[in-house]
C-alpha cells in the first residue's frame, strides 16, 4: 500500500512537471512574437478577402440570390473565398496556436476536422450555385481550366477530409497505417490549399474578362482594379498560411509517453504537430526515471495512464 501511494505521488509530480514544461515551452517558443505578428496578419488579410468579396458581389455585381440568375452565381465566389480559402487556412494552422497546446490532441483534431468539414460544405454549395446558374442560362459546364482544376480540388479535398476522419480521428486505424499515411495527409492538405488559391485567382480573372465589356477590363475600370486587389489579398493570405505551417519551430510539441495518450495505443499522431523540444524542467529527467526500480515503474505506469488520459 505504501509503495502504491509513493508511486501515485511520483506520478502526480510527473504530471505537474509536464504542465510546467508545457508552459515553459510556450514561453520559450522560438520567435513567439513573430508568430503572433504573422498570425494576426494572416487573420486580418483573410478577413479582408472575405469582406472584399462581399463588396464585389454586392456593389459591383448587383447582390445575391437563388433564382438561376447571375445573383445565384455570385454565391460562388463568396462561399469559395469564405470557406475554401479563409476557413481552410485557419484549419491548417490550428495546431500551431501555442495557447492550445494544453488542450488534448483529440480536441484539436476534432476542431481541425470540424473546420475542414464546414469549408467542404460551403465549397459544395458554391458548386451547386454555379451548375444551377449555367443550366438555367444554357451555358456549357466544365469547359474551362478553372472549372477542371476547381472540381479536382473539391474532390481531393473531400477525399482528404474522409481520410483524416476515418484514419486519424477515429481510433480504428492501426499504428502502421497512420505512420504510412501521415506524410501524405500533410502534403496533400497543403497541395489542395495551394491549388484552391490558384483556382480562385483563375476564376476571378475569368469572371472579369467575361463581365467587363463597357468599360473593358483592359481599360482599368474601378471594378477591375478592386477585384485585382482582392486577388492579391487572397495570394498574400495563402503565402502567410504556408509560412506559418512550414516553420518547424512553431509546431505543436510532442506529448511525452504519447503511446498512453492514444486510444488505440498508437504514437504517430504526435507526428501531426510534433517537434523535438527540451522538457528539462520536469521534476525528473529521463535518466533519473530509468534508474528507478522496475517494480516502481510498473506501478507508476498504471496511474499515469489514468491521469494523463484526462489532459
TrEMBL record:
A GO MF term: transmembrane ascorbate ferrireductase activity
Compartments reported by the entry: Apical cell membrane
InterPro entries: CYB561/CYBRD1-like, Cyt_b561/ferric_Rdtase_TM
Main localization (coarse): membrane
Catalytic activities: Fe(3+)(out) + L-ascorbate(in) = monodehydro-L-ascorbate radical(in) + Fe(2+)(out) + H(+); monodehydro-L-ascorbate radical(out) + L-ascorbate(in) = monodehydro-L-ascorbate radical(in) + L-ascorbate(out); Cu(2+)(out) + L-ascorbate(in) = Cu(+)(out) + monodehydro-L-ascorbate radical(in) + H(+)
Membrane topology: Multi-pass membrane protein
A Gene Ontology term for the protein's cellular component: lysosomal membrane
Keyword Chloroplast: no
Region annotation Disordered: where it falls in the sequence: 283-311
Keywords, in A-Z order: Cell membrane, Electron transport, Heme, Iron, Membrane, Metal-binding, Oxidoreductase, Translocase, Transmembrane, Transmembrane helix, Transport
Protein name: Plasma membrane ascorbate-dependent reductase CYBRD1
